[in-house]
Amino acid sequence: MKGTLIYNNTYSSNNLIFPVIAIQKNGEEKNNDVIYIASELAQFIYKYTNASDNEIVIEGLNRLKYNLVMFFGVPMFVLAKQDSSNFEAKKYTININIEIPINNIRNYQEFIAVQGSNDDLSFLKAYNKNEKIVFAGQLQAKVEDAQFLIFGNLILENYFDIKTDKNDGHYIEANDTITSNKNKPLKYYIRKELSDSSSLGTKYANIPITSYYLEIKHTDDTNIAFQETLTFNLTAHKNAEVQKKEKDKNLQNAIEILISQIKYLMLNLGIGSSKTYFEKTEIDIDAGGTQHITAEALEDVSGLYLETKSDGSYYIKGSLKISTSALEQAIFAVRVKAESLEKSKLRTIIYDHLNGIIVHIIYKDNYIYCVFVLQQISEDRYQKINEYKIYDQNILCPFDNDIITASGVIIEEPFGIYLVNGKYKLKGKISMESSLAYFQTMANEDIKLFFDNEYNNGDFMLQLGETQIGSTMITCGFISEGSNRICDIECPKQPSL
């Protein structure tokens, strides 16, 4: 693999990342289907490999490494330093002349690459057993409710009955062909999904995406658990022969990688995917005085991601691993790119009292910054992060429901500000037996755009307290009696947003 790349690194980072937008073999037309690209390139580059001095040449730098990372179908060619230190913020000219050892090649006719809900690739080997094709190997779920994307679109349909929709009726009991270390029986099917990149705009609307997913769960309909290991000894549905293909040893003639100079564009907008992954960072916060938060207490953030739903809402999900330097608690900062969010719609604090997790959320410079406070650390130092909703297209200044429920209040409808018939209204509903039902919570500091410090209409009162790290303390109370308390009031201030 050879060529010259130009990279404008606009801020200090530990990776230089290039989206691969097309590949071309000798005698063939260019192909820009991102899953085809991933399937082809994963045969050659599928883990970090240290480069020799003449394989990656950047003036003033040495001891580099490279990888092809699949961000759920978006193939990214990644360069990093072997000591994991950062690249300076400047423009780089990079000369590539990589020779991939033949024994590193994973022929897609014999191996199928599978990506779980993080950046890692695993391989299932295909072999001929008694004139049947068998796929063998192991996959491990690195996050809760893991999803597996298969990079084998060139051969899958030769061996399996592929479904094109999600339907519980498609599941096949795996029996002993796929087993779990949890000793729970499994069921599965393989689903094909066709889409394009229109969410990126008209420029990318014609980039096709042909994705194959392994839909798998336990026969009791529970999802695959964090760190659950699946062992495959799966006979193909169709009796197709494993075709052997002699590899062209001169890989420079086998693949031409065309690199776009768009940094992070495909990664952050997520072609064919709604997931983008967090990175370690540092940030100054105002918490009764300026505090500088780093990521020193965090060992691994590769399992934590931001998921975007089809309705435009955002969720934080995944897992983390805490450094051994953190003792009884851990405080650290991470961030993820998220462009053009409306700050008023962001949930600015998460108080997960059941798991001892507090998260402060800040949006600036098109990044979501999260400051985690873990009040306890497990023995294995892994921390599962439940699904935290942090952004809703239809709600401004959402109240933190976890703080409310921690005081014993039952939330029937979540509190927040809604735009109804051109007017901003505070809406919500709780259930509580008391002559005066009141509760405290926190919300986005933009609540001050809609309310003064005190509000009382005779039935409902609201009082705003101090603001720290972008969140304002709120005290609310229902004055009228009754177990079901409904708030549906027009905000006294109607800003132009």
Unreliable sequence segments: 102-110, 240-273
Helix content: under 10%
Largest beta-sheet details: 10 strands, mixed
Mean pLDDT: 78
Number of helices: 5
Distance between the termini: 50 Å
The number of E-state strands comes to: 37
Based on secondary structure, the structural category is mainly beta
Please tell me what the overall shape is: globular
Explain what you see.
- This protein is mainly beta and 497 residues long.
- Helices cover 5% and strands 47% of the residues.
- The chain has 5 helices and 37 strands.
- The strands form 8 sheets. Strands 8, 9, 10, 11, 12, 13, 14, 15, 16 and 17 form a 10-stranded mixed β-sheet that branches.
- The protein is globular.
Question: Secondary structure elements and their pairing?
Answer:
Elements: E1 2-8, E2 16-24, H1 34-41, E3 49-50, E4 56-57, E5 64-71, E6 74-81, E7 91-97, E8 111-115, E9 121-129, E10 132-140, E11 148-151, H2 156-159, E12 162-163, E13 172-173, E14 178-180, E15 186-196, E16 208-218, E17 229-235, H3 251-254, E18 256-259, H4 265-269, E19 275-277, E20 279-280, E21 283-286, E22 290-293, E23 298-300, E24 304-308, E25 314-322, E26 330-337, E27 349-352, E28 357-364, E29 367-374, E30 382-391, H5 401-406, E31 410-420, E32 423-431, E33 437-444, E34 454-456, E35 460-468, E36 471-478, E37 484-490
Parallel strand pairs: 12-15
Antiparallel strand pairs: 1-7, 2-6, 2-18, 3-5, 4-7, 5-6, 8-9, 8-11, 9-10, 10-17, 11-16, 13-15, 14-17, 15-16, 19-24, 20-26, 21-22, 23-25, 24-25, 25-30, 26-29, 27-28, 28-29, 31-32, 32-37, 33-36, 34-35, 35-36
